[in-house]
Amino acid sequence: MHEQLYRSLYRIRRVEEHAARAYPSDKIKSPVHLSIGQEAVSVGVCAALEPNDVVFGTYRGHALYLAKGGDLKQMIAELYGKVTGCARGKGGSMHLIDPEAGVMGASAVVGTTIANAVGYAYALKLRREPAIVASFFGDGATEEGVFAESLNFAVLKQLPILFVCENNQYAIHTHQRQRQGRPDICARARALGMPAECIENNELLNLVERGKQVVGRIRSGLGPHFMEAMTYRWQEHVGPGADFHLGYRTEDEAQPWKDSDQVHRLADLIDPVRRTEIETEVEEEIAAAFDFAESSPFPSPAELHEHVFQEVCA
Asked: pTM for this one?
């Protein structure tokens, strides 16, 4: 299990580091919100999901897309705005989707996919299908009205959904304590009648263990569950650089999270020879994905009118 988890964690980290290096060249045609530092949440939760389960994410969605099995080549091509991308070059970094892998899409509008995820979970229940839904969102999204409405509906209908709040403590440049009169998101979920828990330390193996227990509970028909996962983004809100010079957070605040980097901690649990093999395979895969994006064509003008609406035949 450790090798599989390490492959996923290392792969996400390196994909994003490659994207960060390519970003200043202007080859990436959309804003990029990196998940560096937050990878363990997506990897840990997705390790508990089955292939037929689905996830809905946020604009900071690279880690979730890859952890759930989204196609890497299509992801990089989408960042490049190429027609071979997962949204045919129209969505960019903030709108990754791969339905075949159970990645049902991300959105640049804060909180919107929470309701989408609840609707999907409702459909699963009505159809009596065995799959479950995991809805990922940030701490800032919990301040949107759709958050309370969606959780309330999920409780009322006892839907098969896991709500995952990736709490990196900042909504762009504003800390949670400056935005919320009572910065206890789990308490708000419990007030709506939903079991809720906070995972404090961003520790991958703990996330995997709790994820499997919670997912098992949901799958058994006991209704929705709320998980708040404390984490921390290393880079600026959007883009590849650091932002400590802006003054809203400090390097001292970030350092403990970097010291407990889950990529390095899990690497220490892998046999060195096997770890080198995994890393070599991942680096080759990433290089091929960027080559694919570089060589792929941009969409033709005709694409402007494609996939705009769905025609329904009578």
From this structure: 0.95
